Every structure is written in C-alpha cells, then in structure tokens.
Amino acid sequence: MKERFMGTDAEKSFSAAGVVARDWGWRHASRKDFALRHVDFTIQPGERVLLLGASGAGKSTLMAGLAGVLGGDDEGELEGELL
C-alpha cells in the first residue's frame, strides 16, 4: 500500500493563491470606530505568517475578512480591498 502525504496529491489538485490587502478596513455597524483601518500587506503562495496582537487589536476581524464572513452593508462598513 502506497502512503500519501498532504502536499503531494493535494498540491496537484489545487493551485496556490496569495492574499493582498490594499488600504483595507472594517467597521462593525454597532461601533463608531473602525476595528481595522489602512491595512496593507501581501502574503505570497506558500508563505507562512504569524498573526500576533493584543486583545481587541483586530486579529479576529482580519481572519473573518479573509474567510469572507464579515457580512454585508447592514453589518458594517468596508474600506479598500482584500483579495
């Protein structure tokens, strides 16, 4: 029986994608101030990144934006681009 490791067949099935934020920001509808604002970064395919910050710094908001689950205009205000 041939062993399969993640990263061999999986890499053949999916193409790598990077992430780009351009002047990105998000303000929750229930808040006056933006949770994150003027965020700029590029993550290349295959690059590993550590997201580190104090409580309330916007880590979860950024991850929700990357996952595409922040909601529509009724849930908040979006600035810039997150690709």
Structure description:
The protein has 83 residues and is α+β, with helices and mostly antiparallel strands. It has one domain (15-82). It has helices spanning 9-13, 59-67, and strands spanning 19-28, 36-43, 76-82. The chain has a three-stranded antiparallel beta sheet, with helices on one face. A hairpin with a 7-residue loop joins strand 1 and strand 2 (36-43). It starts with 8 loop residues before the first helix and ends with a strand.
Number of strands: 3
Task: Calculate the mean pLDDT score and round it.
Answer: 88
What is the topology, as strand order, of the major beta sheet? 2-1-3
Tell me the strand percentage band.
25-35%
Number of helices: 2
* Helix content estimate: 10-25%
In total, the number of domains comes to: 1
Question: Which class do the helix and strand fractions yield?
Answer: alpha+beta
**Shape category:** globular
Q: Topology as H/E string?
A: HEEHE
**Quick one: biggest sheet?**
3 strands, antiparallel
Poorly predicted ranges (pLDDT <50, ≥5 residues)? Answer: none
Radius of gyration: 16 Å
Distance between the termini: 41 Å
Based on the model shown, name its key terms:
alpha+beta; 2 helices
What are the SSEs and their pairings?
Blueprint: H1 9-13, E1 19-28, E2 36-43, H2 59-67, E3 76-82
Antiparallel strand pairs: 1-2, 1-3
